[in-house]
Amino acid sequence: MNTVYTLIDSPVGELLLTGEKTADGTTLTSLTMPDQPTVPADWRRDDEAFTEAARQLSAYFAGDLTRFDLPLAAEGTEFQQRVWQALDEIPYGTTTTYGALAERLGVPRAEVRALGAALGANPLLLVRACHRVIGADGSMRGYAAGVERKVQLLTHEGALQPMLG
Q1: Where does the record place the Methylguanine DNA methyltransferase ribonuclease-like domain (predicted)?
Q2: How many other CB atoms are there within 10 angstroms of residue 157's CB atom?
Q3: Is 8 a catalytic residue?
Q4: Which residues pair with 97 in a beta bridge?
Q5: Distance from the CA of 50 to the CA of which of 26, 94, 112, 113 falls in 20 to 30 A?
């Protein structure tokens, strides 16, 4: 296994990017935020392997990029993969609800919890924008990196108005 990683500073804290090196470059397998899993001892740090991912993340946080274009290879069940791919269709600066996403995927109402669990297992935060899925009442339901970061990202994208403090 050629698992490599890098750490990138961002407005939402340090990001941990993990990938697999291939003959064609690096395929992104996860992007996690602070307070999430740490780096196993058998991974190797390789900042250069993530040059394009770092460039795109920088452009995203600068407001110049609204859609990521990176090779992705997150591991998950067939159902999780379907849910994660559907996240790619939620436009920047917008939100959708768990129910609307379930309807679009043909997930029965009784299985919406499974959809929520698949979102919670998304290993590619930011890149696969699960932060754009909110409660039907507009509430900020769970986010693996914390609801406060979800609010921060949605505010950055213009989907929420900044809070006056």
Answers
A1: 4-73
A2: 19
A3: no
A4: 134
A5: 94
